[in-house]
Queue: 3 jobs
Job 1
Amino acid sequence: MSERDGFYPGVPCWIDTGQPDPEAATKFYGSLFGWTFVGPGEMPGDPPGQYFVAQLRTRDVAGVSSLPPGAPATPAWNTYIQVANTDETTEKAQSEGGKVIAEPFDVAPDGRMAVLADRQGAVFCAWEPRQRKGAQLVNEAGAWAMSALSTDDPGEASTFYNALFGWSTETFGSGDDAARIYRLDGYVGGEPQQPVPRDVVAVMVTSTEWQGSRWGVNFWVNDADETATNAKRLDGKVVVAPYDTAISRDAVIADAQGAIFSVSKISGP
């Protein structure tokens, strides 16, 4: 497990999901991952939205909110990347061919954010922390482990995120199990025993028909097969049935309102 009290600029630091019925979503994820929830806090809007903070062992792990005004009707999981200055990052993203979905705004007293998209349209959030520093618990069963970018143009994606955050890209593994990883020089995260280098900040995969260009999130679980079965029992959908990789057993799941995420059981020693 990893307890966190902050992150490093250029590192994904928080995740949340906007949902048509956030209270129903809290019941789904509470049952699936054992989350408890703080809130709801109030989100801007007319009428105001709701924002719940999910916790494991009283530590913040994710957010569940109402769909923001103008958001797509299909819910999704969002990845927040910590930055030193949201306004400067927004300008840089535009200069590198990205798009501004929502101009920088304050989320008082937690931080300042913007919603951006890369050159292929994958949406992410830039987060300049104030009171909210990000996830307080990662790399534990029921908690967020990693975000993954699905893209149909890996070369363009690599160029964009290198210019914006200083990420370098390399291949990890070989053969059918080879993956592209994003690394940030000088960052040390994760766990000493993890199967990938500790300066890895994200994963990149070639998009499939169901993915498109998007950022997705992955959670660690004790049993991927059991989690997939439980998701169906909770009116979710198994998008990709459990399967083995060189280091884990994974599944791709949609929650009861359609937000897609993946789960992994990391292979033991």
Job 2
Amino acid sequence: MAEARHATPPVPDGEFAFSWEDFHKIAALVHGEAGIMTPESKAALVYSRLAKRLRAIGLRSFRDYCALVESSNGVEERQALIAAMTTNVTRFFRESHHFDHLVQTSLPPLLDGVRKGKRLRIWSAGCSSGEEPYSIALTLLSMMPDAAERDVLILASDLDPDVLARGQAGSYPAARLADIPVAMRGRHIDKRADGNFQFTAGVQQLIRFRQLNLLRDWPMKGPFDIIFCRNVMIYFDQTTQDNIWKRYARLMSPGGTLYIGHSERIATDALPFELAGQTTYRLKGVAR
């Protein structure tokens, strides 16, 4: 039925035949698997990203591709499809005001607790290739140099196993390090023989990388003192966003801090958070 609404295909004269029926099948699958909304205005983007997959696996049309990803043999390709449809734009110390708030407000009382034997748990949800959790780890180490020897842990999760593997490796080209303060670079990053730079074992010890679909079951129990979830919710509809905010709240410590993306907002009248700074929220009391 979707096909009848359009007189022309979504991408005229493309290398591969691509119909509106194909587009809507792909959009529905992406939404069902990962909660990601794909409006018709992104049809050309869908074609561009998935044409690479068709070439890679030797298919001739999007109809064939849809048949594959909808079949029982298409489990691996469905994962590749979701990875192709997500945007992994990140950098070290992105949205620096969050790290200022981390240093000035969130971490000092928590680190006092760590010094007295308490645990500290931070979650980087949608961590992409690792720049965010490594930025958090460097910040922690700047305030508590022996953090890796204490009960301190950063969970770094993402849907895409390929970007997680890059984060797990902890190796980056020099150009990616420009936003890391020089003092942190000299203390916690070593140059490798191949010209890339490697985070030291002390930094990597603080982080656990795990694959996680935010729409599925979450195996971790919490509680988390701090959660970073930045520029992730923009892909979800409002109902999905609200459900995930509530799930975060149930896993957070009382008064825990949630950092979100610059274009994201939380409805504090309906959800158990209060605004604590620029795109920074604090959990109200104990979530139930």
Job 3
Amino acid sequence: MSFKPKILIVRQLALGDVLLATPIIKQLYLDHSGDCEIDVLTRKPEAFINNPYINEVISPEGYLSFQKNYNKTINLDLAYENYPNMHILEAYAKYSHGSIKKILDQQIGIFTTTANEYSINNFIVDNFKKKYVVIHMRKDTWPSRNLRESTWREIVDGLLKETNVEIAQVGSEHEISFNHNERLINCLNKFTIQELKLLISKSVCYIGVDSGTLHVAASTNIPIVSVFTSAHHDFRKPLGRKDTDIFIPITPEIECYGCQSRLQPPITGVICSVGDPFSPPCKDSIPVIKIIKNVIANIN
């Protein structure tokens, strides 16, 4: 009778951080040639739907009554928060394998189905007449990552003026979308993570900020143009994609860019090293024209 180790991975929040655990999970599965049981404790179970490397997904509340003994527990909560000068995946790998070099496939894994494909293909046929970009205009926690609505409007209007693409606006129902032009398609709160991956994968470019949706885009090979503020792009950029896959970080024109990596860990809340953490100057120092030019350069 062979020994089949039982492994528990813990990463409760947030969506992007949870998605970044997927390369760790895959490597653990491969380390054991699939002869193991990997469970995940999280508050974002939607990140692991269809994941072939996972045995079971458990909520923190459910874990209290979960009758199972594990041979190994890898707790990734506060992993990168304790190492803010590392890429998130590098911090995870430090906990799980000792080195990121041991993570052979570093791209985020989101697994889709034929039904997902069918749903998205129908949505595209029904809603788009030409090629489209996907944009996520975030409005959530961490104020430094929330650009002003007027800034997003300037970006959207620039794309409408300078290109003929349609614009799929994605995100949660409380986030930003515009409706002043027929080429603006409101897609808020319409898709699962798996469907969102497919929508992005069939677009010509993804535009957004440092967020969970950025990491969904990172699971595709589509050009990414993304804004970064308190967290430096070196510690959030997509890993594991082909060298030819385009990633363009847009950074604020401010000396304190990426301050998160220079502050005393753990970094677990709203921060700003020079001003009001709820209205930090970095989010208002984004070169909008640079975003528009880079999108244009990558959709032709």
